[in-house]
Design brief:
By secondary structure, the chain is an all-alpha fold. The protein is 75% helix and 2% strand. Helix 6 crosses helix 7.
Length: 322
């Protein structure tokens, strides 16, 4: 039976050999493929520090000769692997293995991309079926009648399908984004399978965003024209880019909040003007002036600034009259 020290020594050698193999894999990619990753500029050799090259060569030499390992050898290789990983970031040993082009369909990146293809195919079929059913429903089913439960049931089904349409288009937009992103990451050898749950969450977010955006917007306005959009188009845009929904919500808030502030300022202005003929302590006038000056410094809307300036003018006249 092997002694515990011998077992630990064997485990250290195995881990050391695994780290050396990882370092060699990452170094070969950095020297051969990394210079060609920048497609806009001419390929340039990657400069790898001599300390990293020496540490990897030393580890391979030790493994080949079967020399005993010292703590300094393990630390030296770990530091070299960490420094090399920072140079090749976001590509790592894991992403290289998960996107290995020599793997005949067994890599995790390819398995995930195949799942996306299947989901995208099902979603496209759902979109086509939805459009066909909604466009030609009147030719297949009679007009809904309260006394005809069969027709009324189909009417409810069509109504539900119409409400689900933007959600389906949101899923299609999210899948278009995910397929484009996955292709980029796989080609760049930076696809990380540990982020697959994030990709599925992005798909669900696209579905929700598509339906929510369709409820909030029916058109897109530019400086010169207003473009009417169908719910499907709005859903697809929101599914492809969740920023579309975020900006839509922000614009709605920007359109509503300034009006609330301005209306409240106008009410306060009327109240102030109504009290100009009443006695008001100097301390109250001073505090009110200071509050308005602070509000003026943070106000960005022109109408709001105008209201504040009018109120400050009324206060100035009130103070001058006293």
């Amino acid at each position: 039976m092997a002694e515990p020290d011998e077992i630990r020594q064997v485990e250290r050698k195995q881990q050391y050999a695994a780290n050396a193999a990882d370092a060699r894999l990452l170094l070969d990619w950095a020297l051969k493929e990394m210079p060609h990753m920048d497609t806009e500029n001419e390929a340039k050799p990657v400069s790898i520090p001599e300390t990293i090259l020496d540490a990897i060569a030393h580890s391979e030499h030790q493994i080949y000769l079967g020399d005993d390992l010292g703590p300094q050898d393990i630390v030296r290789l770990d530091e070299a692997l960490g420094a090399l990983s920072r140079i090749t970031m976001p590509v790592s040993v894991n992403t290289l293995r998960h996107t290995d082009s020599n793997d005949t369909g067994r890599s995790l990146a390819r398995k995930f991309s195949k799942k996306l293809y299947w989901i995208a195919g099902i979603t496209v079929f759902a979109v086509i079926a939805t459009e066909v059913i909604l466009d030609y429903s009147s030719a297949f089913w009679p007009t809904a009648d309260a006394e005809d439960s069969y027709s009324f049931g189909w009417y409810l089904a069509l109504l539900s399908l119409e409400r689900l349409e933007p959600f389906i288009y949101g899923a299609l937009g999210a899948l278009a984004y995910l397929l484009r992103t996955a292709k980029h990451f796989i080609t760049a050898r930076s696809f990380d399978v540990y982020r697959i749950p994030e990709y599925y969450a992005r798909l669900l977010l696209g579905i929700v965003s598509g339906g929510a955006a369709a409820l909030l917007a029916a058109s897109v306005s530019t400086d010169t024209v207003v473009i009417e959009l169908s719910k499907g188009v709005v859903g697809f845009l929101a599914g492809y880019s969740t920023e579309f929904l975020y900006r839509l919500v922000e614009r709605l808030l920007e359109a509503l909040l300034p009006r609330v502030d301005i209306s409240s300022m106008r009410t306060a202005r009327r109240g102030l003007l109504e009290t100009t003929n009443r006695a008001m302590p100097a301390s109250v006038l001073s505090d009110l002036t200071k509050s308005l000056m602070d509000r003026l410094g943070s106000a960005k809307d022109p109408d709001e600034r105008k209201q504040i300036l009018e109120m400050l003018g009324a206060l100035k006249n009130r103070i001058g009259s006293e």
